[in-house]
Fold:
Amino acid sequence: MKEQRYQIGLVGLGVMGRNFALNMAEHGVAVVGFDRDAHQVSELDAVAGDHPLTGVRSIEQFVAALTLPRAIMFLVPAGKPVDAVIRELLPHLSPGDLLIDGGNSHYQDTALRAKTLAAKGIAYLGVGISGGEEGARHGPSLMPGGDKHAYQRVQPILEATAAQVDGDPCVTYLGPGAAGHYVKMVHNGIEYGLMQLIAESYDLLKRGLGLTDPELHQIYHAWNATELNSYLLEITAAIFAQRDQEHNHWLIDEILDAAKQKGTGKWTVQDALDLGTPVPTIATAVAMRNLSALKEERMLAGELLTGPTPQFHGDHTTFIELLRNALYAAMITTYAQGMSQLQQASTTYGYGLHLADVARIWRGGCIIRAALLEDIRRAYANDPDIPSLLIDPRFGYRVVERQSDLREVVRTAAAHGIPVPALMSALAYFDSYRSGWLPANLIQAQRDYFGAHTYERIDEKGVFHTQWQADERQIQGQQS
Structure:
């Protein structure tokens, strides 16, 4: 190991850890990495070059190499591996040291760890990192939460290594406790929703219009040059241009249609339910990943259950334009759902989130970065308390203007038996949110009927209960 003291330690030298370590070192940050896997340490040393970066396999050597008070970040899988790292480090730490969890930990785990470590004098930050391997290497979006003074200690490091948009680093202090990991969780929930929407547009173009992969590449490439411009559209276009070199087929057609997940989307939906915040498009995206995993069951059902033939005979150019507008409207409603959840969580959990800052740090580096995030930032900068993006005149107008296209796409999909549940849920969310009256009064009456759960009235204040069976018998008697 090079004879020097290192500013920050990094535990976990897999691809993400190694790339982020090299990112920091290239910005002049002296980094020492630790991993019990000798191969991972060797891989780090192989890319270190002349940068202030080295790897070790001894926890004692690792801790001793750090400047005091120590700052240690770990990039390991969420759950038990995080607790294992903390347990291994604790005997070697001193009050004033700082631990930083850069993984996708559940926000409640982060809150508990921060509280437990604070009692020992150890500061703790939960930092959401988005951008994948490429982002870790060249600049991710960073979402830190926890002790503000602890954040300020590593702020120069995080700002130097984060993605930059017009010279503005995609990182900011988000709030106390688990605010950072909560924001990252909802980021991933929005990501689930957007990916499902894009996948449904692909299904309509492939099975509905019968387009080839080169044609799909051209369409998504063209769409990415419009208001749909985003990282997810960019990589979607690239995917349709990728060949499987071994078999000389388009690679996308060789990939099994069973999507996996690591839990952040599910966590988003679970907490939205606890908060009473509707996120139907995100919830649908999670459900569709679960449904996609039932491959054998779906194959059997396809032989037994009949439906329309998914083949569209109308004008392709017109429908493609309708689909582009529908996708954009649905994407806006998905961002709106996620931002509303963040707003409610901020109040409930005391995070004090500034949603304009959240949108700002999502503009670069992260998976859901998109051109419309600058407009989202402006919307919340103009009115931090706006209850929904759909209330913002700019975004409300965009969805209203495209709603007929979204309706036509949903109608066409239903007629041809092509499942588009996320597009449908986005439309239903829009219609429900703009409806001054919903049939929930019947639900309240049903609840009171079978469970005496009471209800409220529109003509007078108070809580009421009705003996429904008695009234029903009276009506039946009058009719007889």
